[in-house]
UniProtKB/TrEMBL annotation:
Species: Neogobius melanostomus
Similarity-based family: Belongs to the type-B carboxylesterase/lipase family.
Listed InterPro entries: AB_hydrolase_fold (IPR029058), CarbesteraseB (IPR002018), Type-B_Carboxylest/Lipase (IPR050309)
SUPFAM superfamilies in the record: alpha/beta-Hydrolases
Protein name: Carboxylesterase type B domain-containing protein
Span of domain Carboxylesterase type B: 37-146
Gene3D superfamilies: alpha/beta hydrolase
């Protein structure tokens, strides 16, 4: 199981795909390719839920940061919060703990009452975890398009302009 967050160096996924590099970036976003090559069962997730205790410290556009999922997995939000958890915080905590417990026991994160989490493969399906869990395809696709299509065009324009001067 490997995960990414919106602020977790996930933008480097595009560099990994673009260069066909197979390695680990920030300990997770790129390593799923190594696991796939080895024939392992891979479950990729993007964790976007920001616990209330961190929201005042971050801009609104930042979802989760690196490691925020650990607060949920280990129930630390309830331990560190002086206030009672919101219903959505309790709910996501229970769901995430179930996914992790399931993968530790039978080897599949899926179970009763949980959104089905597909194995990562050619379809590039992964579980997006926020107040609702949703299956999505192609993690960080917008960033991949930017890095492989838009940015190279911008660089060429700049280089062309500098050459003309």
């Amino acid at each position: 199981m490997t995960g990414i967050t919106s602020d977790d160096g996930g933008w480097l996924l595009s560099v990994v795909k673009m260069c066909h590099i197979k390695g680990t970036i920030n300990l997770s976003p790129g390593c799923y390719m190594l696991y796939l090559d080895a024939g392992a069962h891979v479950y990729l997730y993007e964790y976007n839920f920001a616990p209330r205790m961190w929201r005042k410290l971050r801009p609104d556009f930042v979802g989760a940061n690196h490691g925020d999922d650990l607060f949920t997995v280990f129930g630390l939000c309830s331990q560190l919060h002086m206030l009672k958890l919101l219903v959505c915080e309790e709910d996501i905590g229970k769901r995430v703990m179930k996914y992790w417990a399931n993968i530790a026991r039978p080897g599949s994160p899926n179970g009763d009452g949980l959104v089905h989490w597909p194995e990562y493969g050619q379809e590039e399906s992964y579980l997006f975890i926020d107040t609702e869990q949703v299956v999505r395809q192609q993690p960080m696709q917008e960033r991949l398009v930017f890095m492989t299509q838009i940015l190279p065009k911008m660089v060429k324009k700049i280089e062309k302009k500098e050459h003309m001067e």
